[in-house]
Amino acid sequence: MFDNNRAFDEGWGIFECHGSQNGPWQLQKLDESPRLRNDLEAWRLVVDYANAGSDYHTKALQFLAEHNPLEHNCIIDTIMRRAVA
To answer: What's the CA dihedral at 17, 23, 24, 29 to 10 degrees?
Structure first.
Protein backbone atom coordinates (compact mmCIF):
# COMPACT_ATOMS: atom_id res chain seq x y z
CA MET A 1 0.00 0.00 0.00
CA PHE A 2 1.24 3.49 -0.84
CA ASP A 3 1.64 5.86 2.13
CA ASN A 4 -0.60 8.86 1.40
CA ASN A 5 0.52 11.04 4.35
CA ARG A 6 2.79 13.35 2.35
CA ALA A 7 0.46 13.22 -0.65
CA PHE A 8 -2.44 14.47 1.47
CA ASP A 9 -0.32 17.45 2.55
CA GLU A 10 0.22 18.24 -1.13
CA GLY A 11 -3.48 17.95 -2.01
CA TRP A 12 -3.61 14.54 -3.70
CA GLY A 13 -3.66 10.84 -2.95
CA ILE A 14 -3.83 7.35 -4.36
CA PHE A 15 -7.23 5.86 -3.63
CA GLU A 16 -8.74 2.41 -3.96
CA CYS A 17 -11.70 2.65 -6.33
CA HIS A 18 -13.55 -0.68 -6.30
CA GLY A 19 -15.55 -1.37 -9.43
CA SER A 20 -14.23 1.58 -11.42
CA GLN A 21 -13.78 1.09 -15.16
CA ASN A 22 -10.51 3.01 -14.76
CA GLY A 23 -8.99 0.40 -12.46
CA PRO A 24 -8.73 -0.31 -8.75
CA TRP A 25 -6.19 2.37 -7.71
CA GLN A 26 -6.30 5.98 -8.90
CA LEU A 27 -4.26 9.12 -8.31
CA GLN A 28 -6.72 11.92 -7.58
CA LYS A 29 -6.93 15.42 -6.18
CA LEU A 30 -8.21 15.54 -2.61
CA ASP A 31 -11.70 16.98 -2.86
CA GLU A 32 -11.25 18.80 0.47
CA SER A 33 -7.99 20.46 -0.55
CA PRO A 34 -7.83 23.89 -2.19
CA ARG A 35 -4.19 23.32 -3.26
CA LEU A 36 -5.06 21.69 -6.59
CA ARG A 37 -7.95 22.43 -8.94
CA ASN A 38 -8.41 18.96 -10.44
CA ASP A 39 -6.93 15.50 -10.99
CA LEU A 40 -4.88 16.70 -13.95
CA GLU A 41 -3.01 19.13 -11.68
CA ALA A 42 -2.39 16.28 -9.23
CA TRP A 43 -1.03 14.12 -12.05
CA ARG A 44 1.22 16.92 -13.27
CA LEU A 45 2.55 17.62 -9.76
CA VAL A 46 3.47 13.98 -9.19
CA VAL A 47 5.10 13.53 -12.61
CA ASP A 48 7.01 16.83 -12.33
CA TYR A 49 8.38 15.96 -8.89
CA ALA A 50 9.25 12.42 -10.01
CA ASN A 51 11.08 13.83 -13.04
CA ALA A 52 12.94 16.20 -10.71
CA GLY A 53 14.23 13.23 -8.71
CA SER A 54 11.74 12.86 -5.85
CA ASP A 55 11.81 9.27 -4.58
CA TYR A 56 8.39 9.70 -2.96
CA HIS A 57 6.69 10.76 -6.19
CA THR A 58 8.56 8.12 -8.18
CA LYS A 59 7.25 5.50 -5.73
CA ALA A 60 3.71 6.80 -6.27
CA LEU A 61 4.06 6.24 -10.02
CA GLN A 62 5.66 2.83 -9.45
CA PHE A 63 2.77 1.83 -7.20
CA LEU A 64 0.33 2.71 -9.96
CA ALA A 65 2.41 0.93 -12.59
CA GLU A 66 2.21 -2.25 -10.49
CA HIS A 67 -1.39 -2.01 -9.24
CA ASN A 68 -3.17 -0.15 -12.05
CA PRO A 69 -1.15 0.07 -15.28
CA LEU A 70 -4.17 1.61 -17.02
CA GLU A 71 -4.07 4.62 -14.67
CA HIS A 72 -0.28 4.86 -14.81
CA ASN A 73 -0.20 4.85 -18.61
CA CYS A 74 -3.02 7.37 -18.82
CA ILE A 75 -1.17 9.75 -16.50
CA ILE A 76 2.13 9.44 -18.36
CA ASP A 77 0.52 9.72 -21.81
CA THR A 78 -1.58 12.73 -20.81
CA ILE A 79 1.24 14.66 -19.14
CA MET A 80 3.73 13.88 -21.93
CA ARG A 81 1.21 14.85 -24.62
CA ARG A 82 0.60 18.19 -22.92
CA ALA A 83 4.34 18.79 -22.56
CA VAL A 84 4.80 18.40 -26.31
CA ALA A 85 1.82 20.59 -27.26
So the answer is: -50
